[in-house]
Design goal:
alpha/beta, Spo0b-associated Gtp-binding Protein, Chain: A, 18 strands, single chain, binds guanosine-5'-triphosphate, 9 helices, GMP Synthetase, Chain A, domain 3, binds magnesium ion, elongated, Rossmann fold, six-stranded mixed β-sheet, 20% helix
């Protein structure tokens, strides 16, 4: 089954907590701090696998979680790292973060890897915190949380050339005569339900990838027919071959057909109308085709038209030469940022501000994780009493007090915010 869009959740592993421990050695009365660092949480990494052609396997795998890092060990030894999870995806997969609606990765290069959710760093063990004033620190750093994201994967095929046109104009037939691809061909509409790719070898030795797409109809850009679902596969094509049924076997007017499809391309969001377009007037073998062709040329005097017949392989070589010549001078169309040259390092990714998170570290110690609280903390001058008062008021306003209470924090418990520790007082 061809699946080109799935939503999944990815959870990277949390970093392990640093350990609080002290050396206990024979004949050494006061051993120094020796708690090791927590291990790193596993990351979720996507990798292009050219053997894959669909997102099907991910459809049944709604949540993917990597393991947490282990807690630090004694003798300054680090906890175990959580293994990274590598998810193989087909070439041409884009990853969108659903909380920001931003594309965060565009996997198009063979073997390309992108970290989609980063594992948390392990916390530092207590031996890092020994100072001349406190040679036996009773605290260690908690592990950082791993990133967690709801994402949408979309497969946008990588083809140099896309075949567009109404249903039954002969797109699949054309692909089948110029490549080894074996798309289904029939005289009913919407024979092609999923895109087919074929490698086209031109007689001079050059080659390119051609995609045969489901037929478009009026309203396709708004989702009519199969249009909108499949228009996305044209997005990466550099050149479009617009196939028209010049024999008008279906009783439609080829001139009208041509106008309607172009209108749909303009309506669609990804500037498809800016792609170079080559017009192929197919089914020239049919009766009345020549008349239609003359009419077409008169209506569009500035458009170069290639006429031929896919089914009897007529006029195809000329069409392919024109295609490869235009391809060789047409740059890629970046999908997401037209100003950036580098098409796959995309896109401004703005993580959503974390709300307030409270983690129970045990023994009456709690970690408060909140970007906003951290920022407020850094902005306040604690040189005098007023600073503490202002901080307390700001925390209450932010909802920190409620969040702490809700998590089960009791009077006198220790709250850790970044490197700052304070007591919770009701
Ligand atoms: N007479 C004639 N018939 C053709 C030619 N090319 C294709 N056909 C016929 O047109 C019909 C539709 O061909 P397809 O290749 O399936 O058309 P399509 O554009 O892929 O159609 P959809 O997949 O439904 O969008 C088939 O019956 C073909 O045999 C041609 O050059 N001449
Ligand atoms: Mg077809």
């Amino acid at each position: 089954m061809f699946i080109d869009s799935v939503k999944i959740k990815v959870n990277a592993g949390n970093g392990g907590n640093g350990l609080v421990a002290f050396r206990r050695e024979k004949y050494v009365p006061f051993g120094g701090p020796s708690g090791g660092d927590g291990g790193k949480g596993g990351s979720i990494i996507f990798e292009v696998d050219t053997n894959k052609s669909t997102l099907l396997d991910l459809r049944y795998n709604r949540t993917i979680s990597a393991k947490n890092g282990g807690v630090g060990k004694n003798k300054k030894m680090s906890g175990a790292d959580g293994d990274d999870i590598i998810i193989k995806v087909p070439q041409g997969t884009t990853v969108k973060d659903l909380s920001t609606n931003q594309v965060i990765a565009d996997l198009i290069e063979v073997g390309q890897r992108e970290v989609i959710a980063r594992g948390g760093r392990g916390g530092k063990g207590n031996w890092h915190f020994a100072t001349s004033r406190d040679s036996a620190p009773e605290f260690a750093q908690p592990g950082e949380s791993g990133e967690s994201k709801e994402i949408q994967l979309e497969l946008k095929l990588l083809a140099d050339v896309g075949l567009i046109g109404f249903p039954s104009v002969g797109k699949s037939t054309l692909l089948s005569v110029v490549s080894a691809a074996k798309p289904e061909i029939a005289d009913y509409h919407f024979t092609t339900l999923v895109p087919n790719l074929g490698v086209v070898k031109v007689k001079d030795g050059r080659s390119f990838v051609m995609a045969d797409l489901p037929g478009l109809i009026k309203g396709a850009s708004q989702g009519k027919g199969l249009g909108h679902e499949f228009l996305k596969h044209i997005e990466r094509c550099r050149v479009l071959i617009h196939v028209i049924d010049i024999g008008a076997i279906d009783g439609r007017d080829p001139i009208e057909d041509f106008k309607i499809i172009n209108e749909e391309l303009i309506q669609y969001e990804y500037r498809l109308s800016e792609r170079p377009q080559i017009v192929f007037a197919n089914k020239i073998d049919l009766e009345g085709a020549q008349e239609n062709l003359d009419r077409f040329k008169k209506e569009f005097p500035n458009i170069k038209v290639f006429e031929g017949s896919a089914i009897i392989n007529e006029g195809i070589d000329k069409l392919l030469y024109e295609t490869i010549n235009i391809l060789s001078v047409t740059p890629l169309f970046p999908l997401y940022d037209s100003k950036k040259e580098d098409k796959h390092i995309v896109y401004t990714y703005k993580p959503k501000e974390k709300e307030i998170e409270v983690k129970n570290l045990g023994n009456g110690q709690w970690e408060l994780i909140s970007d906003k609280a951290s920022r407020i903390f850094k902005s306040i001058n604690f040189d005098n009493e007023e600073g503490y008062y202002r901080f307390a008021v700001a925390m209450k306003k932010l909802g920190v007090d409620d969040a702490l209470r809700e998590a089960g924090v009791l009077e006198g418990d220790l709250i850790i915010l970044d490197d700052y520790r304070f007591e919770f007082v009701e």
